[in-house]
Amino acid sequence: MVAMFAASCLMVALRPDAVRNATVAPHSTLLEDLAYWGTQTPLRAEDDLVGIVQNPPNIALQSLLAAVLVACVVYIALRARVRFAPPVPAAALLGLTAGAIWPWLGTTRPEAGLAVAALAPVAIVGGMLYERRPPGTMNWALGLIAGWLTVSGIGAAAALVFMRLDVESELVTLAALLALSLIGAQVQLSLGRNVAYAIAIIWAMLGIAAASMSLSMTVSTACVLGIATMAVVVVRVTT
């Protein structure tokens, strides 16, 4: 299941991005691409706020995606080396399955795709908190994956709101970043010293800030504030 999730992430990242490849006028906000295509095509994974996370345009987000893929490989390798490793939490398996299929489901059924996208991080975090845990290093790999899926899920929600409702794109983006900061902080406090979850969110916000710097300083500033919030939480749970 971990391998299937990694393969799906890689295929989503490598598939063509019709919006960015189209000859259209420059846009002023992160979600303008979705405004252009919203009435012409169904929601696709690469059209949401963190399509830049799944189809990364800069080195920060590309390295984050690479780290998630490496975490999958490490998780598989470590489990193979441990003779009597506890079983993978059932909830975590459900979350990985959801994380693998939601970008493809979202291309035809946006609402269903959003529901599956939301299920993915919730299930993985639930498995880490309430089921028999794997050894520490494996848990860190799951934490990084869950953090990345949290960013993707909130981005999918932002894209769907923008596509279905008449709301300014920048406002939707700011609300999504606020939700990401609040949810990320609360989950990290529950996870304790496994800060890989927070690291993934901080890493994603750095990339989003870099990608939006020439589009919206307000969004970039919101990312910086979100990073500061997550950093405070990391310090709290590690000291």
- Regarding quaternary structure, how should these chains be classified? single chain
Shape: globular
- How many alpha or pi helices? 11
Distance between the termini: 34 Å
| Strand count | 0
Low-pLDDT ranges: 18-48
Helix-strand pattern:
HHHHHHHHHHH
Biggest beta-sheet profile: none
Strand content: under 5%
Mean pLDDT: 76
The secondary structure category is mainly alpha
Gyration radius over CA? 17 Å
Helix percentage range = over 70%
Overview of this protein structure:
With 239 residues, this protein is an all-alpha fold. It has helices at 2-14, 18-21, 32-37, 51-54, 59-81, 90-105, 110-130, 136-164, 169-191, 196-212, 217-238. It is globular, with a radius of gyration of 17 Å. Mean pLDDT is 76; it is low at 18-48. The N and C termini lie far apart (34 Å). The protein contains eleven helices and no strands. α1 runs parallel beside α6 (90-105).
What characteristics describe this protein?
single chain; 239 residues; mainly alpha; 11 helices; 74% helix; 0% strand
Helices and strands, with pairings:
Layout: H1 2-14, H2 18-21, H3 32-37, H4 51-54, H5 59-81, H6 90-105, H7 110-130, H8 136-164, H9 169-191, H10 196-212, H11 217-238
Gist of the model:
By secondary structure, the chain is mainly alpha-helical. The chain has eleven helices and no strands. Helix 1 runs parallel beside helix 6, helix 6 runs antiparallel to helix 7 (110-130) and helix 9 (169-191) packs antiparallel against helix 10.
